[in-house]
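Entry:
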Amino acid sequence: MPTITPFLWFDSQALEAAKFYVSVFKQGSKITSIAKTGGKGPGKKAAVMGVTFRLRGQQFRALNGGPVFHFTPAISMFVDCTTQREVDDLWKKLGRGGKPSRCGWLTDRYGLSWQIIPKQLGKLMHGTAPAKSAAVMKAMMAMDKIDIAGLERAYKSA
């Protein structure tokens, strides 16, 4: 069976970004290889060309490909959180130097989009009561960082 690996294109910050992501998602995360130019091809001799790393067991590859392509929110990393503390911690760390957006989305300092989403959101929105789901959706649409207690209040009040 072939393996599917997210491949991230950076201007020149692939190693810096990989180190940052590994520091945020410590458990099951590490840089597994660094490829450097050998004087042939783009970049300076011995410059970092690519990085392979793991985040919570998921392999990623990153390339220093230059300024030709940029990330868009059309592709994002979805992080399934269990507690508000996890949401708060990841929102703070990934958002530092980046930009928050609505509904649990943020763009980090490298331009990569992340969705920091508590598991409770899915449970509250996919219940059998349409009015409750609509109330949770309305509450979420007004949030940048997702607040689990706020979602639960919306669910109970509907």
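The mean pLDDT is 94.
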